[in-house]
Amino acid sequence: MAKTISASVGFNGVNRKADVIVVQQLLNQVPSIHGGPTPLLEVDGWSGPLTIGAIQRFQLKNFGWPGTDGRVDPGQQTLAKLNEYGTAPSVPPPPPPPPPEPESMDFAIIPSFQLDLFPEPLTSSQLTYLVIDVKNGLQRVYQLQISRSGPPAIGPFQGYFARFKPIRPTGVSGFEGTGVYSTTLRTNPGPPSRTTVNSSLFLFPPGGGTGISIPMKTHLFKPEPLPGTGGTMTTSVDGKFKIIA
Questions:
Q1: CA atoms within 13 A of residue 159's CA, in its CB half-sphere
Q2: What is the C-alpha separation between 226 and 235, in angstroms, rounded?
Q3: Cross-strand pairs, 214
Q4: How many helices (H) and strands (E) does the chain have?
Q5: Do the strands 107-111 and 71-72 form a parallel or antiparallel pair, or are they unpaired?
Q6: Which of 98, 134, 137, 218 is most buried by its number of CB atoms within 10 A?
Q7: What Å distances lie between residue 119 and 113, 116, 145, 186, 228, CA to CA?
Q8: What is the model's pLDDT at position 154?
Q9: Cβ atoms within 10 A of the Cβ of 142, count?
Q10: How far is residue 225's CA from residue 186's CA, in Å, rounded to a whole number?
Q11: Residue 206: strand, helix, or coil
């Protein structure tokens, strides 16, 4: 809001104390390159040589010699110009920070690649997943980024899915860290002979601790029985489990 004075201030002015204080305050807000006083005036309500000299310096800088009379009058150009410097532009407040992401213990994960066997060579494109916070209806797209990156491939996310629980309440963006995709084949020669194959995605939080095991449909190799006395064979790939969308 523009400041006003009730009577003239400066050379041959009325110089009421309250008015002088207003003019001194306004002068002190003017940058020196635009005619402001150097050093700043003492705001004491006395229109002495320093205050009058500051008025003249300001007028000379802004209006030239014809407008330099050493006095500030109500409603005139000097007071109006001083108010231009004294009125700071309004600065909008910074936007409020986004609310914290809600946490949940109920998640679903949907692979973008839904066949029974991964192609060769395997790339990160086939290891892309939609993670859904079932409780809060939020979702993020993650990728297990292995050494063979491959072209981007996101979705469609449909078909097979798995529900899982984290170790502790977590937001949908809280699963970045290390990931391991593993396929294990077990052959029992029998009798009767039996072969089972299981694949899982293991997620490990960045701070360490117990990982999360999530069953998966797609295998890293063809589930053929092991020869001879049977046994167990495991193959895995690992990388960074990162948000990509």
A1: 14
A2: 14
A3: 201
A4: 3, 10
A5: unpaired
A6: 218
A7: 10, 10, 16, 22, 27
A8: 67
A9: 24
A10: 8
A11: coil
